[in-house]
Amino acid sequence: MAEKDLGYRRVQCTGRGSYIISLPKEWVQCVGLKKGSEINFSVQPDSSLTLVPRKLKEKYAESDHAKLKEYYINVDLSEDDLQSALRMIKALYVISADLIRVHFKGSEDVVKYKNIIKNFARATLLGAEIIDETQDEITLQILIKHSEFPIEKAVRRMVIVALSANRDAILAPKKQDDVLFQRVITGHHDANRLGLYAVRQLKFGIEHNLFKELGFRTPKEFLLYRIIVNDIKNISEDALNIINNLSTFQKQIDDQLLFIKEPIDEEVYSQLLNLNSVAHQMFEEATKAMFKRAYNDAEKLIAKRSSFVTLEIELIRLISSKKMDPNVAAILRLMLDSSRRILDYGQDIAELTLNRTVEEICTSFEVK
Which residue intervals define the domain SpoVT-AbrB in the entry (predicted)? Predict the structure, then answer.
């Protein structure tokens, strides 16, 4: 039906302080409303109001549920085209694709390329499964639903995984444990999977104007969560960077390309552990304040951040004053920078929490 102007209706006030407005008779008859029929009211971002009869809303929901978003990718059997296909699959996942059919051109190495895509989907795309396979095609379906794993829960889990990976990376220089190294790599992968899923949810929410269904009070909070997801992802990236540098460093020692006589300086390492612990605590408190919409807690954390600058400066001076191998000093600097960035990310999240809640704070008190 084309858009039709039904004119204006005057708002009236009842004796009980309620506001009422009459519905256009033509529209009521057209959609089949009767006494007792229910109408859904939705406030739009521009403060306009959308009225949808319950039967129509349920019909739209069933239609959307039944219609899966399906996409097709053709892959030439070459390394460059395969990498392009992997990026395309990832992008389709983010824009809420339900089905992705990947067709392979040619017959050589099809099995090899199929396995690469299968492993990529399992490692990267949360909820993705291979539901069909032929000689020259595989079909991916994203089975996880937005309601089954809410975005707040995904972000909470992401925080735990990323901080755990970072903590293991900071402990790695002392332990030199392959299991610990692998835990960091796994944590990095898990944080990326959760982050990609969170972005998928955010894009789906923006597209369907579902900010309330995602637990937000305004559409502006989509941007807030997107920034937070990126900060958490960066924590896991830093952890992986530390581990990769340690692995390279250790290999050079094992191959006798480097000869390190002195172990890591205990005084420096102890202060590094302390700074890292402080950074983790601040980041955790910042995310808690964000989830609770706690303006005052966030404000205290922002003021608290400046008090840690002295710790950072003292640690930099201590590292500079020690006569240690430049390679060891470089690893310690990486660890220091990682902890400093976690403090900065915590401050960022606290500031975003202020932006998220300041209107609630400044409109909840009467001016006297």
Answer: 13-59
Q: Which residues of 136-165 are buried (b: 16+ CB within 10 A; e: fewer)?
A: ebbbbbbeeebeebebbebbebbbbbbbbb
User: Can you tell me the distance from the alpha carbon of 28 to that of 34, in angstroms, rounded to the nearest whole number?
Assistant: 8
Give the angle 245-248-249 at the CA atoms, nearest 5°: 85
User: What homologous superfamily is domain 151-362 in, according to CATH?
Assistant: Phosphate transport system protein phou homolog 2; domain 2 (1.20.58.220)
Q: How confident is the model at residue 64 (pLDDT cuts 50, 70, 90)?
A: low
Map tokens 């109408």 to a residue: 39
* List of residues 6+ apart from 322 with CB closer than 8 A: 265, 268, 329
Helix axes 178-207, 79-94, angle to 10 degrees: 60
Q: What is the CATH number of domain 68-142?
A: 3.30.110.20
| Cα 298 to Cα 342: distance, rounded to the nearest angstrom | 15
The pLDDT tens digits for 269-310 are 999 999 999 999 999 999 999 999 999 999 999 999 988 999
Query: Does residue 367 register a pLDDT over 50?
Result: no
Query: What type of residue is 118?
Result: K
Secondary structure class of 163 (helix, strand, coil): helix
Please, which residues bridge with residue 51 across strands? 41
DSSP for residue 34: -
Domain boundaries, the chain: 12-65, 68-142, 151-362
At 260 the pLDDT is 66
Q: 203, 169, 202, 174: which is closest to 188 by C-alpha?
A: 169
Distance CA 121, CA 137 (A): 15
At 310, phi and psi to the nearest 5?
A: -60, -40
User: What's the whole-model pTM score?
Assistant: 0.79
Picking from 341, 147, 120, 68, the residue whose alpha carbon sits closest to that of residue 230 is 341
In angstroms, the CA 339 to CA 167 distance is 10
Q: What is the DSSP letter of 99?
A: E
